[in-house]
Amino acid sequence: MSLLGIDVGTTGCKAGVINSDGEFLALAYREYDIVRPRPDWAEMDSRGVWQKVKEVITEVVQRTRHDPVTALATASMGEAMTPVSAERTILGNSLHMFDSRGDEYVAELAVRPGRERLHAINGNVLGTPYSAPKLAWLRDHQPELFQQAHCFLLWAGLVGYLLGGEAATDLSLANRTLLLDLRAEDWSPELLEATRLPRAKLPRVVSSQTVVGEVDDRLADELGLPRRVKIIAGGHDQCCNALGAGVVRPGRANYGIGTFLCVAPVYDRLPPSKPMLDCGMNIEHHVVPGLYVSFLYNGSGGSVLRWARDTMARAEHTEAMLKGYDVYDRLMAELPDEPTGLMVLPHFAACGPPTFDDRSAGVIVGLKLATGRGELIKGLLEGVTYYFAEGLDLLGQAGLHVTEFRATGGGAKSDVWLQLTADILGQPIVRLQVSECGVLGAAILAGVGSGVFSSAAETAEAFARITRVFEPSPPKHAHYQQRLAQYKELYPLLKDYLHRL
After folding, report:
1. Residue 398 reports pLDDT greater than 90
2. 29, containing H or E segment
3. What pLDDT, on the 0 to 100 scale, is given for residue 99?
4. Which residues lie below 8 Å from residue 96, measured CB to CB, with a gap of 6+?
């Protein structure tokens, strides 16, 4: 008996099978690209991504036939919604959070219900990245597709639906639409009225760990799964990451280093809305009942490292794929030991608090003819981390205090990156035995929903095994504190210029 966890991310999907002791029996990954029909549009090829999801499921199931899967759950990125038919057919691409479509509807929502009222109901800071403005754009600009759609599904719910489950979404992902009432734990009539979006186009809202169906027999045969595998509601990938990392107590925070870089502290009460809004902080349901999370995030996390790989190490990447080694190990080995002389504004993609600026752009200051590839890449990583060092001040202002950071995601495998993070933040960074905590978190939800485990929090505490703690270097932290002060000057200096540009 084993459990299948699936994680559908921004630029890749993973599937992993664990046993009842939390040990990985198999793990598979496929990469895909964001589709950009126009410079300011960003879509996911929903049919292509679904094919990749089926591939990773098939691969891990074939490798674990000796221990059949009994239940599965999916973690996924938020915001992106896919139109589907009642016959479980994908009707079009999903608009990514990076997509600029929907700006005009954000302006409308700023008037009615207004930013403060929206935050009081939904817990999010109004912006273009969320689902509701994009659904409104589709309704008005692609009306035939909008009317044809049986409903629009976020990716974790989409995977479950395509596998044979009901059209459903969990609370954590429903929150990413701007349409959920946090306290009522259902779609908000007031927000639906304000956006002029019909409830009938949205799935049922359920709690994570809820059974939403069984895998269709035809698909079970295609993927190599046994019959009657239970489909369990998963959740937002950041929340599943936190669960897999054992971030299930107040005071802990997940430091997710994936395509996005996201810091997610957890707490056990709904805080007052206004202080959180004043700090630009959201409130979201955790996938663990009775807990909540907030996010400091930047789309220039692992994405900026992938950009460096694709623009400065294309030949090495090709060689690495042919010879079976990790090109990132080679790139990280080039990083100088000492802090760089570069200053990077990491606004290469959408970013959240403290800036919430989707009209900015990435900036690299201090380049010279002597600047090498290793120094440039380290400068990029420094800039991304400065962003979070500045943002962590907001947590204290909002009354959220973090005493332990647990690193997850692909970047958590890098000693260099974790040590750099500890040196800049001035706090220890914990590495866990398993870095793919999103897959693990989803598998834990599958186990709880199917009755294998009794408690998500207790199971996560047992499975999140610490292997190393990266302590900050006092001299480097002192130097980085001076550089952080200089970093804080950069955005105010360039903001207006970048907007005009």
Report:
1. no
2. strand 24-31
3. 92
4. 10, 34, 42, 43, 44, 79, 80
For the residues 112-137, what does the mean pLDDT come to? 96
Strand 284-285, strand 292-293: pairing: antiparallel
75 neighbors 241 (Cβ within 8 angstroms) = yes
Assigned token pair, 25: 């029996």
CA distance 301 to 314: 19
- At the topology level, CATH places domain 2-294+436-463 in Nucleotidyltransferase; domain 5 (3.30.420)
Tens-place pLDDT, residues 131-176: 999 999 999 999 999 999 999 999 999 999 999 999 999 999 999 9
Q: How many beta carbons lie within 10 A of that of residue 159, not counting itself?
A: 26
Do β-strands 230-236 and 69-76 pair in parallel, antiparallel, or remain unpaired? parallel
Q: State the distance between the two ends of the chain, measured CA to CA, in whole angstroms.
A: 57
Beta strands in 120-226 (DSSP E): 151-154, 168-170, 180-181, 186-187, 204-206, 211-214
The helix (H) or strand (E) run that includes residue 14 is strand 12-18
Task: Identify the CA nearest to 153 among candidates 41, 229, 77, 71.
Answer: 77
Residue 249: which pLDDT band, with cuts at 50, 70 and 90?
very high
CB 388 within 8 A of CB 295: no
- Distance between CA atoms of residues 474 and 433, nearest Å: 26
> Are the CB atoms for 263 and 216 separated by under 8 Å?
no
Retrieve residue 499's tokens. Answer: 């907007």
Dist. CA 100–CA 116, nearest whole Å? 23
Q: Do domains 2-294+436-463 and 296-397+471-500 have the same CATH topology?
A: yes
DSSP states along 55-96: HHHHHHHHTTTTS-EEEEEEEE-SS-EEEE-TTS-B-SPEEP
**Is the peptide bond prior to 354 cis by the omega test (within 30 degrees of 0)?**
yes
Contact predicate 405/263, CB 8 Å = yes
| E strand or H helix that includes residue 345 | strand 343-345
Residues 405, 396: Cα–Cα separation, whole Å: 15
Residue whose entry in the numeric block shows the structure tokens 């996924």: 76
Q: How far is CA 203 from CA 154, 180, 199, in A?
A: 9, 12, 8
Residue type at position 55: E
Strand, helix or coil at 232? strand
* Kind of pairing between the strands at 180-181 and 261-267: unpaired
Residues 381, 267, 300, CA angle at the centre, nearest 5°?
20
Question: What CATH class is the domain 296-397+471-500?
Answer: alpha beta
What is the C-alpha radius of gyration for the chain, rounded to an integer number of angstroms?
A: 22
Tell me the C-alpha distance between 135 and 154, whole Å: 12
Q: Which position has the token pair 């908000």?
A: 188
Separation of alpha carbons 110 and 125, rounded Å: 10
Hey, where are the domains in the chain? 2-294+436-463, 296-397+471-500
